[in-house]
């Protein structure tokens, strides 16, 4: 049976921390008997590391002149404890005395740890979901230029085996093969840029335009296949931001995926991505000309698990995780325009210094 609450008194003479009294719950929690009263914690087989930590905590309580709160983790038993410590004054022995209340918070800490693990797993799932939504399109994007390359390679083979070889035609075939190889390279570079990184990715100064351009590489072919036009504005920007660039790419990718879904069935298949510099800030604006967002939906778009997409199409985690990434970068992500036929999201940052 787990005991969750104990209280007692200790004193701190020069020779070390001493237990004066603890209630029955404390005896059970510390696996002691009343014979421990008046003994040094060192005599009770507590480690020097534990004793030093607690002595420092109690001294800090006296200096602060108020009740202090501490948390400890006992690795041997994998338990967590929350302690409230207060300075009582000088005892009969002439040494400083303190009272303590200790609560077993293992269950709460375990729940928090599991929630963090689940959040990380959900974040990774959402990232994979965003990439997965593009996987089929990327397959076609790579497959199409490969088919063209194979076709021109067959033509080259036939022309080279013919008696009257036309060098000009061969050069044109080679240029087409090279152009389609460049298309594949561009797509794979963008995909690697977006799918890289991870929790340990370091923060770096990056040009905003570089992040936008690399992310667009993954989308452009897929969007073109659905007759969706993407225009880029502000690519002459020299603005830098301090960021984990993979995470920023994932936010832009999510906004583009949402814009794609918004205009796919509309009569105006047009998306605009714009970089705007405003003194100390720089913003990325993603504008689509779909059907807009209703007021009811507008209030919930950043809520976890809220989605307007059909079952199996979206998890409702995209924008909520994007908002978390923005918050972690001290950036702002918000719906800046919303009207029938016009929806715009703005992703705004503080500019980094160029030095």
Characterize the biggest β-sheet. Answer: 5 strands, antiparallel
Class per helix and strand makeup: alpha+beta
Secondary structure: number of strands:
12
| CATH top level assignment of the largest domain | Alpha Beta
Beta-strand residue fraction: 15-25%
Number of helices: 8
Strand adjacency order, main sheet: 2-1-5-4-3
Unreliable runs, pLDDT <50, ≥5 residues?
Answer: 311-317
- Described by the principal axes of the CA atoms, the overall outline is elongated
The ordered H/E elements are EEHHEEEHHEHEEHEEHHEE
CATH architecture label name of the largest domain: 2-Layer Sandwich
The average pLDDT value, as a whole number, equals 83
> Helical amount among residues, as a percent range?
40-55%
- CATH fold field value of the largest domain: Heat Shock Protein 90
Quote the distance from N terminus to C terminus.
Answer: 60 Å
CATH superfamily of the largest domain: Histidine kinase-like ATPase, C-terminal domain
- The whole-angstrom Rg is 32 Å
User: Number of folding domains?
Assistant: 2
């Amino acid at each position: 049976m787990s005991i969750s609450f104990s209280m007692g008194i200790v004193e701190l003479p020069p020779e070390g921390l001493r237990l004066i009294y603890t209630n029955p719950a404390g005896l059970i929690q510390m696996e002691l008997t009343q014979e421990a009263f008046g003994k040094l914690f060192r005599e009770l087989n507590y480690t020097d590391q534990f004793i030093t930590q607690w002595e420092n905590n109690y001294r800090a309580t006296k200096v602060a002149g108020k009740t202090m709160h501490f948390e400890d983790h006992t690795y041997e038993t994998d338990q967590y404890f929350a302690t409230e410590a207060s300075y009582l004054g000088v005892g009969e022995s002439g040494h400083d005395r303190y009272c303590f209340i200790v609560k077993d918070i293992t269950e709460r800490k375990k729940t928090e740890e599991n929630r963090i693990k689940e959040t990380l797993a959900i974040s990774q799932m959402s990232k994979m979901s965003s990439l997965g939504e593009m996987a089929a399109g990327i397959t076609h994007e790579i497959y199409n230029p490969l088919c063209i390359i194979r076709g021109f390679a067959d033509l080259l083979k036939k022309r080279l085996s013919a008696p009257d070889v036309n060098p000009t035609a061969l050069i044109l075939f080679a240029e087409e093969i090279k152009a389609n190889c460049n298309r594949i390279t561009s797509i794979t570079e963008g995909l690697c840029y977006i799918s890289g990184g991870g929790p340990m990715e370091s923060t770096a100064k990056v040009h905003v335009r570089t992040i936008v351009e690399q992310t667009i590489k993954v989308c452009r072919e897929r969007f073109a296949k659905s007759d969706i036009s993407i225009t880029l504005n502000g690519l002459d920007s020299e603005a830098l931001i301090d960021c984990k660039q993979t995470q920023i790419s994932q936010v832009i990718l999510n906004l583009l995926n949402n814009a794609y879904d918004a205009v796919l069935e509309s009569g105006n298949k047009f998306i605009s991505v714009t970089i705007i510099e405003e003194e100390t800030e720089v913003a990325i604006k993603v504008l689509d000309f779909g059907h807009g967002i209703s007021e009811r939906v507008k209030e919930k778009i950043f809520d976890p698990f809220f989605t307007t997409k059909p079952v199996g199409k979206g998890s409702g985690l995209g924008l909520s995780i994007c908002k978390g990434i923005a918050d972690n970068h001290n950036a702002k992500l918000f719906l800046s325009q919303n009207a029938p036929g016009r929806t715009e999201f703005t992703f705004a940052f503080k500019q980094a210094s160029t030095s």
